[in-house]
Specification:
membrane, globular, Cobalamin_biosynth_CobD/CbiB, 70% helix, Cobalamin biosynthesis protein CobD, 1% strand, threonine-phosphate decarboxylase activity, 2 strands, 318 residues, two-stranded parallel sheet, mainly alpha
């Protein structure tokens, strides 16, 4: 049922993508803002309480509906699974930005590419070259794909599949929403949300990096992962971008830009705190790197689907 649920949700999303600014996501953002306003009194314990309350509010109804659907009919449970996966997956949430940037760069319209990248990431792109635009677009695509697709896959495989998928996506949002805005950054309230998502994403991030290595240049991906992932302030992002860049033969991150400059975007990318003189292997990202990224992501997706299919067969035969 897990494989079929994900497959159907992916097919539905290809036909009718769910945009990132849909009303359901907006309602969750409003609830998170109300939780922050109600509980934030300047202590980490308040953030922990708000996080737990938010998770209970999202996960308990999801699990209850799933239990009722299982009691009614396997088809009802399948329909609920498909709906939840469709709502939590975001394979095409930001693909219009990535595709539009690729088309703009291919046509030589760097001005349009800068504008699209600024809308996507919230960064100041006025002084960026085509290579800088390509690199940041690739970085955002890899991180977004992990957090909106592969991380959801992993948690949907857990016993409380739909509820766990909801947990992952909400935890990822809270880790950003309660830490990124200037009035909350470095405040105690958001520390628990960031730490909780670190552990929730610990295994999925490494599985995504392994998938990139398998479907790309394995040796370079593992070498970059082992030797250069620490150059990013965010460990999970460092692993994903180091492995993804190595798999494609690209040098991601910068040696001069501090990771403290975090863009306030739904798919924020943190550039490397690369003060070392050594640099990861690979070439500088160019316009062609965008097409390489598309190929890498699709191959990784097919690998995940194959593994899910084999796992489903093993469960069915067992």
């Amino acid at each position: 049922m897990t494989f079929l649920s994900i497959l159907c949700a992916l097919l539905i999303e290809q036909l009718k993508p769910l945009r990132a600014d849909n009303p359901l996501y907006g309602a969750i953002k409003q609830l998170a803002a109300r939780m922050e306003a109600s509980f934030n009194a300047g202590q980490e314990a308040h953030g922990r309480t708000a996080w737990i309350m938010m998770m209970l509010a999202m996960m308990l109804p999801t699990a209850l509906v799933y239990w009722l659907c299982v009691r009614i009919s396997p088809f009802a449970a399948l329909a609920w699974n498909i709906l939840v996966v469709y709502l939590t997956l975001g394979f095409r949430h930001y693909s219009h930005y990535f595709t539009s940037i690729q088309l703009a760069l291919n046509s030589g319209d760097e001005l349009a590419a800068r504008r699209l990248l600024a809308e996507w990431t919230g960064q100041d792109t006025a002084a960026m070259s085509a290579n800088d635009i390509s690199r940041i677009a690739v970085e955002n695509a890899l991180v977004t794909t992990h957090r909106n697709v592969f991380g959801v896959f992993f948690w949907f495989l857990m016993p409380l599949g739909p509820a766990c998928a909801i947990m992952y996506r909400v935890a990822e949002y809270l880790a950003r929403a309660w830490n990124e805005p200037e009035h909350l950054r470095n405040e105690p309230f958001g520390r628990f949300a960031a730490r909780a998502f670190y552990w929730i994403d610990w295994i999925p991030a490494r599985l995504t990096a392994i998938a990139f290595a398998i479907v790309g240049n394995f040796e370079d991906a593992i070498y970059a992962w082992r030797n250069f992932a620490h150059r990013w302030q965010d460990e999970a992002i460092g692993i994903i971008l180091a492995a993804g860049g190595g798999a494609m033969g690209l040098r991601l991150g910068t040696a001069t830009q501090s990771a403290a400059a975090i863009p306030a975007a739904d798919a924020a990318v943190i550039d490397a705190v690369a003060l070392e003189v050594d640099a990861p292997p690979g070439e500088e990202a160019t316009v062609r790197a965008l097409q390489s990224t598309v190929g890498l992501v699709w191959r990784a997706l097919l690998l995940w689907m194959l593994m899910l299919l084999l796992l489903s067969f093993a469960v069915w035969l067992g």
